[in-house]
């Protein structure tokens, strides 16, 4: 009997020790996760950790690499697990990557869509499952699952581009009238329409009064769009426009380009056609994103201007939205009227873009740390 009692006492003590160990292990893990998330937060509020999926469209554009890496670094510093994926401008790939993030248990998705309309079914399903969705720079359309939108004032971007075009032509080509050609971004990118709309706010009155002539006659979003923002596509279209409309010596005074990658393609076409950079007949060419290669062209006078949208600021805004959402707070919003995605007005935070040209690129782009001097060749 004593032997049996001793065995029973030993078993009870063993089970008690196992239970205590298990309890300690669980509580330490929970406390560790929560404390890590809170202590690593750099001002965006207390976060609860968890997985955040970041879906970016491509690494072929310098700016998207900056966006993705900056946002990932900020979120990881705040204690989140981050799944950053680039779809390389392939719609099925982006869809698969987002589905994989959801399978992994992402609590929040931050998405810069290739073609927002193709993501509706997966976003609707994610929204029903309680996943929060932040549209990053490009509006997500035709779904009520999108919670917030972090972007720049994209209409203002277009207005700045067009005003810079006009200012450049006045500076280099006199008071006009001017011959101009228009380019727009990818027709499956909602931002393209905001950029073009903003630009036409400035240019259409000048077209109407004869100050500007679109010699090719191509002056609508459908006619001037450039699929996937592809510089080679822009170059080919510029080649065609020049051959058809300017071979007889008709002067070309300016080209509205909405993105630096397109600008470089346009500039290549201008050079191949026989325009000489630095001469009086060189057209004014605009751009966007302050890419290093285009800052170099601004230095040499081949590109007149670009628009700086500081991706560091945009990434911080998106990260603050993630923090607020997962902490049960309302993210900071400064626009509740502009961005209708076809289903609802998406609460947005709009940042301020800046025109960059030869007079201010050093201050805005280099001194600010957005690019290193060594980046510019």
Gist of the model:
The protein has 377 residues and is of the alpha/beta class. The protein has 12 helices and 12 strands. It has a domain at 155-309: Response regulator (Rossmann fold, 3-Layer(aba) Sandwich), CATH 3.40.50.2300.
What does this protein look like?
- This protein is α/β, with parallel strands linked by helices.
- The protein has a domain at 155-309: 3-Layer(aba) Sandwich (Rossmann fold).
- 48% of the residues lie in helices and 14% in strands.
- It has helices spanning 2-40, 62-77, 91-104, 120-128, 154-173, 190-208, 221-224, 231-245, 260-273, 292-300, 311-326, 361-367, and strands spanning 51-56, 81-86, 108-111, 132-136, 146-152, 178-182, 212-214, 254-256, 284-285, 305-308, 348-351, 354-357.
- The strands form three sheets. The chain has a six-stranded parallel β-sheet, with helices on both faces. Strands 7-6-8-9 form a four-stranded parallel β-sheet, with helices on both faces.
- Helix 2 runs parallel beside helix 11, helix 5 (154-173) crosses helix 6 and helix 8 runs parallel beside helix 9.
- The longest helix has 39 residues, at 2-40.
- The termini are far apart.
Write the layout of secondary structure elements.
Elements: H1 2-40, E1 51-56, H2 62-77, E2 81-86, H3 91-104, E3 108-111, H4 120-128, E4 132-136, E5 146-152, H5 154-173, E6 178-182, H6 190-208, E7 212-214, H7 221-224, H8 231-245, E8 254-256, H9 260-273, E9 284-285, H10 292-300, E10 305-308, H11 311-326, E11 348-351, E12 354-357, H12 361-367
Parallel strand pairs: 1-2, 1-3, 3-4, 4-5, 5-11, 6-7, 6-8, 8-9
Antiparallel strand pairs: 10-12
């Amino acid at each position: 009997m004593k032997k049996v009692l001793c065995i029973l006492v030993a078993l009870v003590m063993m089970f008690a020790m196992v239970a205590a160990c298990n309890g300690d292990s669980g509580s330490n893990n929970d406390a560790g996760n929560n404390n890590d998330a809170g202590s690593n937060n750099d001002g965006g509020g207390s976060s609860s950790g968890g997985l955040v999926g970041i879906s970016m469209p491509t690494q072929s554009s310098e700016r998207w690499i900056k966006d993705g890496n900056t946002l990932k670094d900020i979120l990881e510093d705040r204690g989140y697990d981050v799944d950053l994926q680039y779809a390389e401008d392939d719609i099925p790939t982006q869809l698969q990557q987002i589905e994989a993030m959801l399978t992994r248990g992402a609590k929040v998705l931050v998405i810069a869509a290739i073609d927002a309309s193709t993501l509706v079914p997966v976003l609707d399903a994610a929204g029903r499952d309680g996943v929060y969705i932040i549209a990053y720079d490009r509006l997500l359309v035709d779904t009520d699952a999108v919670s917030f939108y972090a972007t720049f004032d994209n209409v203002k971007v277009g207005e700045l581009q067009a005003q810079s075009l006009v200012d450049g032509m006045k500076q280099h080509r006199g008071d006009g009238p001017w011959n101009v050609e228009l380019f727009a971004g990818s027709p499956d990118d909602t931002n393209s329409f905001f950029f073009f709309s903003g630009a036409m706010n400035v240019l259409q009155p000048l077209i109407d009064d004869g100050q500007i002539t679109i010699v090719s006659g191509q002056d609508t979003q459908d006619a001037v769009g450039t699929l996937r923002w592809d510089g080679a596509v822009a170059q080919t279209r510029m080649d065609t426009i020049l051959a058809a409309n300017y071979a007889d010596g008709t002067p070309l005074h300016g080209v509205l380009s909405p993105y630096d990658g397109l600008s470089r393609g346009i500039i290549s076409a201008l050079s191949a056609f026989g325009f000489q950079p630095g001469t009086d007949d060189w057209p004014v060419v605009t751009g966007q994103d302050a890419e290093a290669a285009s800052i170099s062209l601004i230095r040499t006078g081949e590109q007149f201007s670009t628009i700086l949208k500081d991706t560091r600021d945009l990434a911080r805004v998106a990260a603050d939205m993630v923090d607020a959402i997962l902490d049960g707070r309302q993210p900071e919003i400064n626009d509740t009227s502009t961005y209708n995605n076809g289903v609802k007005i998406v609460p947005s935070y709009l940042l301020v873009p800046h025109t960059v040209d030869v007079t201010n690129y050093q201050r805005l782009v280099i001194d600010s740390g957005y690019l290193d001097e060594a980046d510019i060749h």
